[in-house]
Design goal:
The structure is a single chain. By secondary structure, this protein is an alpha+beta fold. The chain folds into two domains: 170 residues, Sandwich (Jelly Rolls), CATH 2.60.120.280; 109 residues, Homeodomain-like (Arc Repressor Mutant, subunit A, Orthogonal Bundle).
């Protein structure tokens, strides 16, 4: 891969991970149908082609890299990419970039509700944003032409109003998501589970986002979702192939990794923030799952970055 700038520096603030509306803009209320397309260099060029680690609440990104490349810091992973490529960044995921100078492309930002509406007809769209990903596109391919066309048409529709404006936007967004789904060959092989159990698991995952810092246990989530614990367990095993407790633990561990990497909270403060009464118990849970202590994880990842 051509040489890129240095990996994005970690932003360490005691208040937590920086959260923006669009990068550099303070958080604000998000319209249910918020969609935005802009050129890549609008926010990368002023920052000397580096975007510091941050997150967005209820807003996901699709980056279309048409020239250049770089490195994406996604949670605790570093993903290298070169053009042409699509980068998928889910809402709330901590991410940053070190771009090669003069990289070019476009960035689509979409609200969770837009994604949910599109996923009503194709549940695979949700799975696209399970975690950040870099999807390579073959040069001079049909896929590349389709992505370029969808981005161009979507940008034009968002910039003006004409008959069929809303339908055209929905159509181009659907085309773009379909192309991303087909490029994502690894997760594309997973079974598509539909129906009431899939809905329960989707609502459960959403509830975890708010219950994670309250120390909620499986019965708390079941009461919140107005289902019994056995019903919740069967749904999780069928759809996610994991019990509810494991899904909670995975989300807690992800948040723990975020706080260890991107904040200057102590390990004890991290434990209390995540609802643990005993920091030592938090350290044991972390070590059992990741095979290293929270302190070792923090030190090793900072050295790598």
């Amino acid at each position: 891969m051509p040489s890129a700038a240095k990996a994005p520096p970690l932003v360490r603030q005691h208040t937590g991970i920086p959260s923006f509306f669009l990068y550099g803009e303070p958080p604000r209320d998000i319209s249910d149908h918020f969609l935005h397309v802009e050129d890549l260099d609008e926010r990368t060029r002023p920052g000397a082609w580096n975007i510091h680690a941050h997150s967005h609440e209820r807003l996901s990104h699709i980056f279309f890299v048409q020239a250049g490349g770089g490195r994406m810091q996604a949670e605790d992973r570093l993903l290298d990419f070169t053009a042409p490529a699509l980068l998928l960044v889910p809402a709330r995921a901590v991410h940053g970039f070190a771009w090669q100078p003069e990289s070019a492309g476009r960035v689509l930002t979409l609200a969770d509700t837009c994604l949910a509406e599109a996923a009503a007809s194709e549940p695979g769209f949700h799975r696209l944003f399970d975690m950040a990903a870099a999807l390579a596109i073959a040069p001079a391919s049909r896929e590349l032409a389709a992505v370029e066309d969808a981005f161009g048409r979507l940008a034009r529709e968002l910039a003006w109003f004409a008959p069929g404006h809303t339908a055209a936007i929905q159509a181009q967004l659907a085309i773009l998501l379909v192309e991303a789904l087909r490029l994502d060959r690894h997760r594309r092989t997973q079974s598509h589970v539909r129906g009431p159990r899939a809905e329960i698991v989707a609502r459960f995952r959403e509830a975890i986002e708010t219950g994670i810092r309250k120390g909620w246990r499986v019965p708390d989530y079941a009461r919140h979702l107005e289902v019994s614990v056995p019903v919740l367990r069967r749904a999780c095993l069928k759809v996610a192939r994991k019990p509810p407790l494991r899904l909670i633990e995975e989300r807690v561990l992800l948040e723990a990794k975020r706080l260890l990497l991107y904040s200057d909270m102590s390990i004890a403060e991290t434990a209390y923030t995540l609802g643990f009464d005993d920091p030592a118990y938090f350290s044991r849970v972390f070590s059992r799952n990741l095979r290293q202590s929270p302190r070792a994880f923090r030190e090793r990842r900072q050295t790598r970055s």
